[in-house]
Amino acid sequence: MNAMKNAEKPTRCDIIVVGAGFGGMYAIYKFREMGFNVVGIEAASDVGGVWYWNRYPGARCDLMSVDYSYGFSDEVQQEWTWSEQFAAQPEILAYANFVADRLELRKHFQFETRVTSAIWDEKAKLWRTTTDRGEVLEAPFCIMATGPISIPKDPEIDGISRFKGQLLRAQKWPHEPIDFSGKRVGVIGTGSTGIQVIQEVGKLVTNCLSSSARQAGPCPCGTMTSARNTTPK
């Protein structure tokens, strides 16, 4: 009944932003500062985007932390200090949460909500966006800040459905800790993610095997720590 009611009376706004990663958070901030009525939609329960989902062991930034920071706010830049040159996932997610708190961005987002359709109405010159909650939003602009690789792809391996062990995907790593002690682990892929997983999981297991179509050529990132505290007081 509520879904039907929402569908009959669409919510109107100036801009719809889909995604609460770094791009979506900035879009919300920028358009809000320009005076627009903006609504954000995010499938996760909080901000962070890829750094909310990617919690696998060893996950970290592959460029220097300061280059991953927002540069549009002096307050944000002055109040946050990275603890490492190449920040790990927990610190990057903490940074995203700090920015969301500092700039009061969460109030503009609908969390745990997915867009099921986004259709352009040529006559009305509006995007008509429907969510899995049954709500319909209309706006002249719809910004897709969902990222280019936001949907994980399962490996196409014959017999994978018959695998009796635990199957984990890096992009949708469980939020609760995984006990690897005494287990045999296979890692498929030796890109940056695979290498990071192998370095950390390999310390905990009885046997760790990796499989890759191409040979990887990693080099040490040379991470250095900062003497200053990361978390703003």
From TrEMBL:
<keyword id="KW-0560">Oxidoreductase</keyword>
<comment type="similarity">
    <text>Belongs to the FAD-binding monooxygenase family.</text>
</comment>
<keyword id="KW-0503">Monooxygenase</keyword>
<protein>
    <submittedName>
        <fullName>Flavin-containing monooxygenase</fullName>
        <ecNumber>1.14.13.-</ecNumber>
    </submittedName>
</protein>
<dbReference type="GO" id="GO:0004497">
    <property type="term" value="F:monooxygenase activity"/>
</dbReference>
<keyword id="KW-0285">Flavoprotein</keyword>
<keyword id="KW-0274">FAD</keyword>
<dbReference type="InterPro" id="IPR050775">
    <property type="entry name" value="FAD-binding_Monooxygenases"/>
</dbReference>
<feature type="compositionally biased region" description="Polar residues">
    <location>
        <begin position="223"/>
        <end position="233"/>
    </location>
</feature>
<keyword id="KW-0521">NADP</keyword>
<dbReference type="InterPro" id="IPR036188">
    <property type="entry name" value="FAD/NAD-bd_sf"/>
</dbReference>
<dbReference type="Pfam" id="PF00743">
    <property type="entry name" value="FMO-like"/>
</dbReference>
<feature type="region of interest" description="Disordered">
    <location>
        <begin position="212"/>
        <end position="233"/>
    </location>
</feature>
<dbReference type="InterPro" id="IPR020946">
    <property type="entry name" value="Flavin_mOase-like"/>
</dbReference>
